[in-house]
Amino acid sequence: MRAIYAVGNWKMNKSGRESATYIETLAPLVKNSPARVLLAAPFTAIGAAAAAAKDTSLSIGAQNIHPARDGAFTGEISALMLKEAGASFVLVGHSERRRLFGESDEFIREKVVRCLQSDLLPILCIGETESEREGHKTRAVLARQIESALHGVPKEEALKIALAYEPVWAIGTGKTASAETVEETHALCRSILDELLGKKSGEKISILYGGSVKPDHISQLLAKREVDGVLVGGAALDPHSFAQIVMNCKK
Length: 251
Ligand code: 13P
What we know:
The mean pLDDT is 97. The chain contains 11 helices and 8 strands. The longest helix has 19 residues. The chain starts with a strand and ends with a helix. It has an 8-stranded parallel sheet with strand order 3-2-1-8-7-6-5-4. α1 crosses α2, α1 runs parallel beside α11 and α5 packs across α7. The protein is an alpha/beta fold. It binds 1,3-dihydroxyacetonephosphate. The site of 1,3-dihydroxyacetonephosphate has 14 residues, from β8.
């Protein structure tokens, strides 16, 4: 059985204090959650969020990491720092990082490797743009992103990641991919994983969907066999709306 995840990505929102207030509201609402509940906090809020989440079932993580152990990387953050602050997972390769900050496939691979070496769950984000989908390049783009991120990673390690399919055209646009498109594309990702890691490997990795997820269509998404949860931006900023999403992450 694959793990089901409801992940909130706060992006560049919420101070430490705001995070603590949010968690105090969210925690009781999702006490009996059918999914694992994860919150990707800004670096400066991880400590406060982790402290607030201490006696709850919520897990706190980061939105980015630097692959080096330490060194002269002004403005960056290491695995050790994240872990000490209380992070247990990291979003890697988010399309905003790829697009706005020029992160390459190779850099993303190094981050995945660092997470795995540091016992941090990497949630590898992948997704095609609208023109790539319209140009029938979805498979090629997703295959490139998955294969490059896992290049040289031993199979038993690669199976520890979670994947988040976030079509770029659906992020922050209000244009959610239909449940059918998500189902079909997650199956595509699993076939890419099978080719890369061996038969039936894809079915061992949780694949989440992200892109304009809202409480009203969460049940349709989760009803699909290939969907193991969601990665939520805008609708995760309010604890009540995120709680509604979490509680509907039932398989
Ligand atoms: P929205 O839910 O705001 O579209 O953001 C999705 C996302 O980027 C989550 O990582």
